[in-house]
Structures are given as C-alpha cells and as structure tokens.
Amino acid sequence: MSVITGDAVPAVRDMEDKEVVDECMKVLRELFKEQEVPEPLRFFITHWSKDTWSQMSYSFVKTGGSGEAYDILAEDVQGKVFFAGEATNRHFPQTVTGAYLSGVREASKMAAM
Predict the structure, then answer these.
(1) Which domain holds residue 72?
(2) Quick one: pLDDT at residue 56?
(3) Which residues cross the membrane (predicted)?
(4) What CA–CA distance (Å, rounded) separates 108 from 11?
(5) How far apart (Å, rounded) are the C-alpha atoms in residues 11 and 21?
(6) 8 and 38 housed in the same domain
(7) SS3 sequence of 15-33
(8) Sign of the CA dihedral 45, 87, 92, 81?
C-alpha cells in the first residue's frame, strides 16, 4: 500500500492509474536497488482528491499532539451511541485497517451489553 500526500498529490492527481503505479514502482526500485522489484499483479488507485464527498480527508495528529483526541472521539455516549472510523483508532489512524478495527471494537462493546 502507498499513501501519496503533500506536494505529491497535485503531481499525480490527473495521471492515469497505470502512470501512478509506474511512478510508485520507480520509487520502490530506487529504494531497493539491490533487489528485484516485480511488477504488481493488481492495483487500485482511489483518487480521493477527486471524491466529491471525502475530498481526501482523514484524521491526523498535529505536531506536538498526543493522539488523545482519537481516544476521546471513540468514547460512547451513555452506552447508547457508539463511534467507529479511522479517526477513533489511535493505533491505526488514517487507514482502512483502523476504520475496520474500530468497527470491530464498537461491535464488541455492543455485543457485550
């Protein structure tokens, strides 16, 4: 998996999927010069920057922040309203993994009631 952020976003925003993959492969091959880096079998490019609803949004901890906000956002409301999503997972923020695991966490809380 690769996450393209910062100044690199405008550079790849209008590229075709295969062009994005080719650029990523160039970087990998530069990083691992001593090894053979095979072509990917499959790939999927999300194009979040063009998504009308998300507009490339995700959580982040500002410089000097503690990450405590993730825990606060994950707090339920009187055991009746539960919150999941990558922004509620301190250990895997900004990822699908974090979103998924937070859903499992909240489902477990509800099932225990």
Answers:
(1) 67-112
(2) 64
(3) none
(4) 42
(5) 13
(6) yes
(7) CCHHHHHHHHHHHHHHHCC
(8) negative
